[in-house]
Design brief:
The protein has about 425 residues and is an alpha/beta fold. Helix content is about 40%, strand content about 20%. Helix 1 (about 15-35) packs antiparallel against helix 4 and helix 7 packs antiparallel against helix 8 (about 225-235). The chain starts with 16 loop residues before the first helix and ends with a strand.
């Protein structure tokens, strides 16, 4: 007989009561905070059509799909000539593709613009590492049907408000625009069909530096003049409004003036009304992996934690692939799992946490006394206190220590 395995599947994890308490609190704070910005909760299935997941919109994530075999009579292993004969669905790798399908199917009944909040698990057959799992919770807010930069400003303000409420102070929101990325590449002399390769290399800037980017571009066989023009731009541009103005003036032949002006307005507006302690910086090296982004893109990082804990941007063309009609769309996703991990590591204490009381009842207590204990417990619960009933163990000292570790601040004993 095959022995059963106690550990979770690779890349998955069990969640302890302590972590679950933090997760539940963060979820409630997300709903409350985003609700104040006018976002409504929706939910989509975890299984999505394989055609939607493989539509060349999800970038590298399309290589990481957990695919689902056809079921019953539809599964014909003996006559299948390719994978698509066997597979018709997959676990979603993000929430944006399902949201786009949901919106395209329900647009007539939804308000315009539609402000959606989505929280749910997603799955990626990725290499597990610190803060990265194969199953993880995502939390997205999206504004669909709003063509103006009001959407970007609202998304950044709502997300930064939430992160600030979790006591994260030193965090940074970096912003760029896909059209600026393309304009910089065009100005330098790269051909449009090579942009994706150029951007993949540029995305490594924080790891390999400007010299590393230069070397990798040359290794790919790009023209030396194009490479040096391109890297010179990054050495001259600054991470502030002056940097945006510099590119607006330098890239006049290849960049619409309004692109830079809108970026300036987003940065200035957020800085003027933000209610959390963070820096807003212009980062011309910010790429973001998803190929569906069409305009402003942004990422949030918490100082002292390597890597981003959230990101998003404008993706005006994705919904049109479902409906045939162009629909403006913009979203911001926070790294729920990474934020929970940081809170646990920092021993975060939930504010205003309800008092927890444990009753220890000696074995052999008479029925009438036991009923009195139950009544006392009910009275306390009616006032909002959590009460756990426990039979007293021989090693009472150890039992009390365990209860204290679970957050029980009051322990009351009842003897026969």
């Amino acid at each position: 007989m095959m022995s059963l395995k106690k550990k979770p599947v690779t890349g998955m994890k069990d969640i302890s009561p302590r972590e679950m308490e933090i997760r539940d609190y963060v979820i409630s704070l997300i709903k409350e905070t985003y609700g104040k910005f006018g976002f409504s909760s929706i939910e989509t299935p975890c299984v999505e059509h394989i055609e939607n997941l493989s539509s060349k919109q999800g970038g590298e994530n399309e290589k990481l799909i957990f695919k689902i075999l056809k079921r019953g009579e539809k599964l014909k292993l003996e006559t299948a000539s390719c994978e698509m004969d066997l597979v018709d669905g997959g676990l979603r790798y993000d929430l944006t593709v399902p949201l786009s399908r949901y919106y395209s199917n329900n647009a007539n009944e939804l308000p315009a613009p539609f402000k959606a909040l989505q929280m749910g698990n997603v799955w990626r057959a990725d290499r597990p590492q610190r803060g990265r799992y194969r199953q993880f919770m995502q939390c997205d807010i999206d504004i669909l049907g709003e063509p103006s930069i009001l959407a970007e400003i609202e998304l950044i303000l709502a997300t930064s408000t939430l992160v600030g409420k979790l006591d994260f102070n030193d965090f940074t929101i970096r912003i760029n625009d896909r059209r600026i990325l393309k304009a910089m590449a065009a100005y330098s002399g790269f051909a449009p069909e090579s942009y994706d390769t150029v951007f993949i290399i540029l995305d490594k800037m924080d790891k390999i530096g400007i010299e590393g980017v230069k070397e990798e571009l040359k290794k790919e066989g790009f023209d030396e003049k194009a490479v040096s023009t391109y890297t010179d731009l990054f050495e001259k541009v600054t991470e502030d409004l002056a940097g945006v103005k510099f590119l607006k003036e330098t890239l006049t032949d290849v960049l619409e003036e309004k692109v830079a002006e809108e970026l300036e307005t987003i940065i200035e507006s957020v800085e003027a009304v933000k209610n959390a302690d963070f820096k807003m910086v212009f980062d011309p090296t910010l790429v973001r992996g998803m190929s569906y982004y069409t305009g402003p893109i942004f990422e949030i990082s918490i100082d002292g934690f390597g890597g981003s804990v959230g990101g998003g941007g404008r993706y005006d063309e994705m919904i049109g692939r479902f409906t045939g009609n162009s629909t403006p769309a913009c979203g911001f996703s926070i790294g729920f799992e990474r934020i929970v991990m940081l809170l646990l590591e920092n021993n975060y204490q939930i504010p205003g946490k309800k008092e927890k009381t444990a009753f220890l009842i000696e074995k052999g207590i008479p029925k009438d006394k036991l009923l009195e204990v139950f009544k006392e417990a009910e009275e306390l619960r009616s006032t909002g206190v959590s009460v756990s009933m426990n039979m007293m163990k021989k090693n009472k000292k150890f039992q009390k220590e365990q209860l204290a570790g679970e957050g029980y601040t009051q322990i009351k004993e009842f003897f026969k």
